[in-house]
Amino acid sequence: MMANLLLGLQWGDEGKGKIVDVLTQNYDIIARFQGGPNAGHTLEFDGIKHVLRTIPSGIFHPNAINLIGNGVVIDPVVFKSEIEGLAKFNIDLPNRLLLSRKAHLILPTHRLLDAASEAAKGKAKIGSTLKGIGPTYMDKTGRNGLRIGDIELSDFKERYRALAEKHEAMIAFYDVSIQYNLPELEKEFFDALETLKKLPFIDSEEYLAKAQHDGKSILCEGAQGSLLDVDFGTYPFVTSSNTTAAGACTGLGIAPNKIKEVYGIFKAYTTRVGSGPFPTEDFGEDGDTMARVGNEFGSVTGRKRRCGWLDLVALKYAVQINGVTQLMMMKADVLSGFETLKVCTAYNYRGAQISHMPYNIEPENLTPIYREFKGWQADLTGMSNYEMLPEELTAYIEFIENEIQVPIKIVSVGPDRKQTILR
Ligand code: GDP
Ligand code: IMO
Ligand code: MG
Q1: I need a labelling partner for 35 at 20 to 30 A (CA). Which of 14, 42, 45, 243 fits?
Q2: Widest CA span in the chain
Q3: What is the DSSP secondary-structure string of 325-340?
Q4: φ, ψ (nearest 5 deg) of residue 47
Q5: How many other β-carbons are positioned within 10 Å of the β-carbon of residue 389?
Q6: pLDDT tens for residues 115-172?
Q7: Residue 88 burial (CB < 10 Å; 0-12/13-18/19+)?
Q8: Catalytic residues
Q9: Binding site membership of 311 for ligand 1 (Cβ less than 6 Å)
Q10: Is the dihedral of CA 420, 36, 306, 245 positive or negative?
């Protein structure tokens, strides 16, 4: 049985959590493959709004197994609070939530290192979520990290201490003032490990290979977005993992020829949190309207998301890198009420018109070239099928499909599970 893959095509927060939740009824296993608690995946159903950080977005469906893959970095402290947040839903977690032994642990000192690194960068800071993501992946690739499987070893505490001491020396090296009480943070960390230990630690690549062999359906859930990919994103203003399709192979141990559909999610406009270039960012009234109507505030840090028009050059790039086979357009409802909509179809790059993403998309080199569309006024949030949508919106959708040459299979018209139009 082939696995399918779902990932974000912009700078994150496209609505991955909502769509994974909608699609879970068709799957036996939902498997997160990268990122960590920098993610905030929102689900809404039955009047409940819930934000997941490390736990896959299929957790509310009684029949699905949720698996956290080797490519994910886990902060036991955040993880424990996520588990506590789920308590009222009476989910049989030990039978429904599995952790890869090869997933890396975020230590309290990783979070401190993240803060020290950002403080040292000053104005050039990445705008990290300060969850310790960069330092943890640095320890992973630097071959110093601690993994879930290490918790079971008798010398785990000594290994922990050795790494934490090294981190303390590094924090001092940054020469910035970071206040912290390590014994307190460590107590919280070791307490949280006890919660983690109540869940099965597994060899997840074996588990998934067997599941595929036995005909089980798997949906791989990405975090962040393609433009935050450490290789293909707007480096250095990116996250520290491969958020693109290849990340599902390395983050779960699923071979490329065992993946079939690649679902790519994008907002009908664009948002970004944190620093870095954003060619179609709108600093005027239109951007403010998108932020207000779309409630564009980060689900993890509460920061206001920067907003702007849809960038088809960037979207095409993401579709190409990921081999997207089906598109899902989110938050179409947020664009109701605009007289005119704009879509960036090319860039003016150092005086020449180009239609690909160049190495450097800093604003001094590049201005977007827009095509305008007539807007629509109707409220979409109660619409339940494609035929109900205003013709200005279907023209917008069909233009995008035509440009990208990939069908848009889902149009989302509100945050709730039910506000989802399938085509
Ligand atoms: P993720 O990180 O990709 O899972 O996305 P987030 O959950 O961080 O951000 C998406 C936000 O948009 C959440 O607050 C969702 O509840 C909300 N949302 C998702 N789809 C829609 C939609 O179609 N319309 C509106 N208005 N909100 C949506
Ligand atoms: P989801 O999965 C949006 C951004 C941060 C920052 C940069 C690096 O909810 O879509 P990091 O903490 O990873 O070192 O931060 O990446 N970022 C996200 N932006 N959605 C996310 O996740 C993000 N995860 C990280 O704002 O600019
Ligand atoms: Mg999010």
Answers
A1: 45
A2: 66
A3: -EEEEE-GGGGTT-SE
A4: 75, 5
A5: 19
A6: 999 999 999 999 999 999 999 999 999 999 999 999 999 999 999 999 999 999 999 9
A7: exposed
A8: 13, 41
A9: no
A10: negative
